[in-house]
Amino acid sequence: MDKLKRVLNGQDAEEQGGLGEIVDTTSLSWGTRVKGFIACFALGVLCSVLGTCLLWVPRKGLVLFAVFYTLGNIASLGSTFFLMGPMRQLKRMFEPTRLIATIVMLLCLILTLCSAFWWHNKGLALIFCILQFFALAWYSISFIPFARDAVKKCFTVCLS
Known about the structure:
Blueprint: H1 2-8, H2 18-25, H3 30-54, H4 61-84, H5 86-93, H6 99-117, H7 122-141, H8 147-159
Helix pairs in contact: 3-4, 4-5, 4-6, 4-7, 6-7
């Protein structure tokens, strides 16, 4: 019956294949998606707050902050996968209007972890956490119509 609906709606007349069947069978109800979003977002906020609290631990505090803050941002970003679905979210992330913001955000996430684990440079880790915050904020407002223009205008007025 589903195949007939797809054909009548002008959708894929061919058999979907293995991946399409997996996507169809694993689709979540709206209530489950909202619960997944809330749980993942809450985990992200918890990790970010925990990272902020761990910032004051002697010696390893800055590294723990960088790691937990980055994991919190990844979890918060991943929470949107529940609402839109992973493929749609990834497509929207790499649209031309937010391509640069996405690349900078992902680069900051990676560089924060690199500076914490491999380079052992606390100063760089802190700088990348700050850049991560601004990159994620800029990326997030790209989903609100005209928000970037408003922020640009606000900064222009404040700095002139």
